[in-house]
Amino acid sequence: MMLARFAHWLGFALRLYPAWSRLYRWLYHRKYKRLCPRIPQRNVEQAQEIVDRLGWAKDGASAMFDAVGSPHRFEAMATGKVPVSTKDRDCDDNACWLAHTFGLSGQRMVQVAWKRGIWMDGHFVAVTYHPTGGMIHCGNWGVRGPFETLREVVEDILGDRELVGWAMLDHELRVLANDRKMPSDKPFPIGRQ
After folding, report:
1. Which terminus, N or C, of the chain has the lesser number of Cβ atoms within 10 Å?
2. Looking at the 3D structure of the chain, how many domains does it have?
3. 96 lies in a domain?
């Protein structure tokens, strides 16, 4: 377990996971930025409805096994400019698009990893403030919250599984925080809609 925690932390501390995702986007998703150069802002309900409609599709070898895809690709599918893909559209892709569509005023993505047998598993969500108050997270698990702290968000995603690590990224995949232990109970400012 210690090795899994160290590998997760190292992947974000050295920015390897974001670099891997940027390479994937450059290789396979450049064309979508020309199709949808601008991602319009939407409120939480509108954005979550689109995520629910498009659904979740497992990443495979074509997504370099779990790279974060371009939010422009997701927008192209959401607006009908390209057919909805039956693969390579999982929680990290949903979270990245949500962080973009909520506005660029500090919206975040949170990734939580846990141990599953001898493997690591995990989940990505977009985190924002809801207009009625409280921090919420959105993604292919729906809208959940409100929460007061980042720790509560991580605990909700983790459930009763054993934490390997967590990371917080901005909408451009810049790593803002990363740890192998639970976050503190202090409120974490993430921007307002």
Report:
1. N
2. 1
3. yes
Which residue type sits at 70?
S
Could you tell me the residue range of the domain that residue 159 belongs to?
A: 2-179
CA distances from 96 to 32, 77, 168, 182, 186 (A): 15, 14, 12, 22, 24
Please, are residues 67 and 88 in contact by the beta-carbon 8 Å criterion? no
Whole-number Å distance between alpha carbons of 149 and 126: 14
Residue 188 placed within a domain:
no
Buried residues in 170-184 as b, exposed as e (16+ CB within 10 A):
bbebebeebbbeebe
Give the separation between CA 26 and CA 42, rounded to whole angstroms. 26
Contact by Cβ (8 Å): 20, 66: no
Q: Minimum mean pLDDT among 58-72, 73-87, 175-189: which range?
A: 58-72
Full DSSP string of the chain: -HHHHHHHHHHHHTTHHHHHHHHHHHHHSHHHHHH-S------HHHHHHHHHHH--B---GGGTTT----HHHHHHHHTTSSPPPSSSB-HHHHHHHHHHHT-TTT-EEEEEEEEETTEEEEEEEEEEE-TTSSEEEESTT--EEEESSHHHHHHHHHTTSPEEEEEEEETT--EEEEESSPPPSS-------
Q: Among 47-51, 122-126, 184-188, whose mean pLDDT is lowest?
A: 184-188
